[in-house]
Amino acid sequence: MNTVIHSHDPITAIGGGDVDFEVLEQALSLAPCLVAADGGARAALAAGHAPEAVIGDLDSLEPSVRAQLDPETVHHLAEQDSTDFDKLRRSVEAPLILGVGFLGRRLDHSLAVLSSLVSKPAPPTILLGSWDVVFHLNATVTLDLPAGSRVSLFPMREVQGRSSGLHWPIDGVPFAPDSRIGTSNKATGDGPVILEMDGPGMLVMLSRDAFSAVWDSFAAPLGKRRNR
Questions:
Q1: Is the distance from CB of 95 to CB of 123 less than 8 angstroms?
Q2: Share of the chain above pLDDT 70, in %
Q3: Does the structure show a pLDDT above 70 at 225?
Q4: What are the extents of the domains in the chain?
């Protein structure tokens, strides 16, 4: 697979699900390079942004939308064994992706995206929706969250880990999608929430107002800071 976008900085990816334009602008303020997965180009243009690349099988890209795009930015990947989200992620080289428009609207598409986060953990990706921030926990993460903040953990495979700063600690708890899950846990506020898993498979789901804490945790090693 050829690399379509190569960036030393985080990028924003936009999909064809529910796109909150306020969330999109927040992502672009931190990661200005915008890449669309197929029909996500429609939402990008509606928000006043021309994506630097459009990647996918293009079955959701209407002719009227395609006519507004620079033909050199449109990349048709015809194979049907992967989703457009997968095609986009394997076609870019970036240290971090902020994904907008990949949650909501169609549940099957959202589930496919969440599955992809676990089965293909690179590049690291933070999904942003109107209500939620979601990422795959494949390394230790430290989050500065206020007391009472929602910290939902959803396993996509059998996995165990450790925590601090949670109302219900997870140490020694065996998680699996068909048995024990960890939704609606919450931060104690007594220091940061620290999560570490023994292997891949755990999704972390927070409220949207926790995005700044997530960004700081993911982007700090890259030397990136929030715009003030």
A1: yes
A2: 97
A3: no
A4: 5-130, 141-203
Q: Give the tens place of pLDDT for each residue, 7-61.
A: 999 999 999 888 999 999 999 999 999 999 999 999 999 999 999 999 999 888 8
The angle at the Cα of 5, spanning 4 to 6, to the nearest 5 degrees, equals 125
For 117, phi then psi, to 5°, come to -60, -35
| Second CATH level (architecture) for the domain 141-203 | Sandwich (2.60)
| pTM listed for this prediction | 0.94
5-130 adopts what CATH topology? Rossmann fold (3.40.50)
N- to C-terminal Cα distance for the chain? 38
Within this chain, domains 5-130 and 141-203 share the same CATH topology: no
Asked whether 158 and 175 are in contact (CB, 8 A), the reply is: yes
Q: Are 143 and 193 in contact (CB under 8 A)?
A: yes
The region, left, alpha or beta by phi > 0 then psi within -120 to 50, assigned to residue 63 is alpha
